[in-house]
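Weekly modeling sync, notes
Attendees: S.R. (lead), two postdocs, one rotation student

Agenda item 3: backlog of single-chain predictions. S.R. asked that every request posted to the team notebook include the full sequence so nobody has to chase files. The rotation student volunteered to paste the first one in as an example of the format we agreed on. Action items at the bottom.

Example entry:
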Amino acid sequence: MKIVILDAFTANPGDLSWDGLHACGEVEIHERTSPAEVVARCAGAEIVLTNKALLPAEAIRALPDLKYIGVIATGVNIVDLEAAKEAGVVVTNVPGYSTESVAQLTLALILELASRVGDHSRAVAEGAWENCADFSFTTSPVMELAGKQLGIIGYGAIGQATARGAAALGMKVVVYNRTREKVVDFAYAPMEEVIATSDIVSLHCPLTPETDNLMNAERLASMRHGAWLINTSRGPLVDEAALADSLNSGHLGGGGLDVLCKEPMTKGNPLRTAKNCLITPHIAWATFEARTRLIDEVVDNVKAWQAGETRNVVNG
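Predicted structure, as returned to the notebook:
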């Protein structure tokens, strides 16, 4: 059975093993695949695995041997699910593998905005402490998080893990979730209230037609003066130009983002030079531990399908 991995590098740049997959068939590994290369590389394969390489309808229809698509991630928007279903191709994903890692980076962005560890470390490395007249100095104001309100939009596994971490720091947590009944451990409030009353708003909702551009200019304007916006979920949840304007005007005091509307970041993205904006290159999911779980789950999904079992199927 021929198995093709279209873009193996991001999930496994060489520090993990594909041995479990080799036990399932003849494996052909590509570090990266351009859209123009997809059909040719997948020719003859029954199983195709992809992280971000697109499998649109025209590609699926051009691959008569294809039986199974395994997404090496949670989000499946890279695959035309309807076309796959019509062609009898099973599509699976890997939910939940990076919950703790994403929550960790969410809190890291919040802590960095609060304590400015990187700024102060760089200042010390550049000699500022050696030349300081006092025993202590700050490069910018630092803030205590205890008692501040963290508003969480979306209360799935990552939102819940983030809430627990924030509570451990002494923060007041207020949550909005589409299904109110799921919010049992922390206070619930309507979304507009969460956005308007929180010192920090953190986004943890999926990208849907309803959440696309969720944090638009109007909602950003409704946030408290000096509040922070954190997004480790999906880039298009945020109007990037409006956020940059809000940060540069001083209405918002900080931004922390691990995701953007277009990735890699495009030249001229207004957030790159926006005031008090931290941007990491979509790394929340990429801890060694999370990637280990990811690959293990990908292999288990393939083995289950080969055994005639249903596991993490998203187009059934």
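Discussion: group reviewed the output briefly. Residues 99-279 form a domain with the Rossmann fold fold (CATH 3.40.50.720).
Action items: rotation student to repeat for the remaining queue; S.R. to check formatting next week.
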